[in-house]
């Protein structure tokens, strides 16, 4: 019997309320150091008609196994993972633009439709991988909190998109990696250095420049959509969404690889749909869109959001987490461009300055975590 290394799973914090993960390659959640058996040549059982398969190749027969002698591994296209990241950021930004274009649909109802699309995508995966619908008994409470916080982040983010400038809401959500480091230090006892504190301060300064509270900037605040009250509500919703998204990432770190990727998203979609339906009936906002344009935009938002998540997951499968996290800042660039071209809303210099502070802090956090992971990998090799 020949031993080959099992598939590796990874995850990276994401921005804009999205939580991309890479599916586990095995049901038991085995890590990369746990071997999987592949049959050696000449060891076929007598009379056995079934073909032996290798777990590290998603079911390929052993002669085509990636670890078999003489097998050439297909070279990945250079930069393909980064291209997938940029494409994912573009799809997320266009979905946000369509959300701004919807006129008669509440943000909670949009979130409900998004949850339905998530469930339709995840359900076949749950059946195929035979994960069940509840998960391991010891992990269900974490999955419930993950579903509640993740769906809350999505609902609050959609509300922020509807009541404040697109670029402002997008920039605020990109402070998620900074809050993730802070929460991981509090709840997971992870290291929190002076650099992390500096990045947190930069992110807070960026959010203040975008929110522009009257006690600092005066009563005449320019460059906002509608009233300042709505702008302030949107800012609070975006910040709360960011903290909720960071909390879900901390929960996913706590759960680790013991819970399948599809099961985690299933809780996110089901709890989100239940919460959205209850909220819509309480607010008496549940109604079908009146015009065909809003119905088409609802479908496109679901498809684009799902497509963005798929491409981001594919990027994480073939590229390191650090470059992907940095390249995701293109979402901010796309938000500014789309806001200027299609919403005729020029950002103020305060917004640009806030964007630079937030992008610098999130990029610095990503680069620092990436270098730490590379250093740890080299130490493990030694």
Automatic annotation (TrEMBL):
Pfam families reported in the protein's UniProt record: EamA
Lineage, please?
Eukaryota, Metazoa, Chordata, Craniata, Vertebrata
Ranges that cross the membrane = 81-99, 111-129, 141-161, 167-188, 195-215, 235-253, 265-283, 295-313, 325-343, 349-367
Q: Quick one: where's region Disordered?
A: 1-30
Q: Where, subcellularly, is it found?
A: Cell membrane; Endoplasmic reticulum membrane
Gene3D superfamilies from the UniProt entry: 1.10.3730.20
What name does UniProt use for this protein?
A: Solute carrier family 35 member G1
Keyword Oxidoreductase (UniProt)? no
> Which InterPro entries did the record assign?
EamA_dom, EmrE-like
